[in-house]
Amino acid sequence: MALKRWNAERVAEAHTPAQFPGDLGPEIALAGRSNVGKSSLLNALCGQQSLARTSKTPGRTRALHFFKTDAHLTLVDFPGYGFAKGPGEDRKAWRELIEAYLGDRPQLKAVAVLVDSRHEPSPDDKGLFDWLNSIRKNALCIATKSDKLSGNERVKSLAVFKRELKLNHEPIAFSSVSGLGREELVVKLKELARG
């Protein structure tokens, strides 16, 4: 039986740590490169096409966006890394914002890191997983756009991510277009939120 879509609403937007909302219950952050499909994944989980804005111009998310769901967890959309647009001061401020959230948010249960299944991990991807491991944060690898690969290509891609990112779990192949991996991801996110 297919899992029902979550109901969700945007409840907060934080450009500075002072704007972080109060306790919203368990939180799972969504991180990844600017064009990896974070907004599409969020919309696919919740079945609301306009919940998170998608853009043809990568790097438009400039704050942390908090989406409270009826699944007893809140999803926190991070600014994309990689080629996010903006002056150096902006990028420095985004990094400080994320570091403040990761370092001092007791509600945070895990960081779901999205990677493009069609490409090998970037230095930014590797650096983020290394950093999350060093600060002892649960990390989950989600390989997006997996519908664009054949079954054999998908198996090879997931094996590369597991090896190159030194994962202690199996990455989840996901597609916001076909729905591939959605049920597996929902189960895993709920499990992490309970942890």
Question: SSE layout and pairings?
Answer:
Blueprint: E1 8-14, E2 27-32, H1 38-46, E3 64-69, E4 74-77, H2 88-103, E5 108-116, H3 123-134, E6 139-144, H4 151-164, E7 172-173, H5 182-194
Parallel strand pairs: 2-4, 2-5, 5-6, 6-7
Antiparallel strand pairs: 1-3, 3-4
Order of helices and strands: EEHEEHEHEHEH
Beta-strand segment tally: 7
| Tertiary shape | globular
Q: What is the fold named in CATH at topology level? A: Rossmann fold
Count of individual helical segments: 5
Question: Which architecture does the CATH hierarchy give at level 2?
Answer: 3-Layer(aba) Sandwich
CATH class: Alpha Beta
Please describe what this structure looks like.
- Strands 1-3-4-2-5-6-7 form a 7-stranded mixed β-sheet, with helices on both faces.
- The chain has a single domain, classed as 3-Layer(aba) Sandwich (Rossmann fold).
- Helix 4 links the parallel strand 6 and strand 7.
- It contains 5 helices and 7 strands.
- It is α/β, with parallel strands linked by helices.
- It is globular.
Summed up, what is this model?
This protein is α/β, with parallel strands linked by helices and 195 residues long.
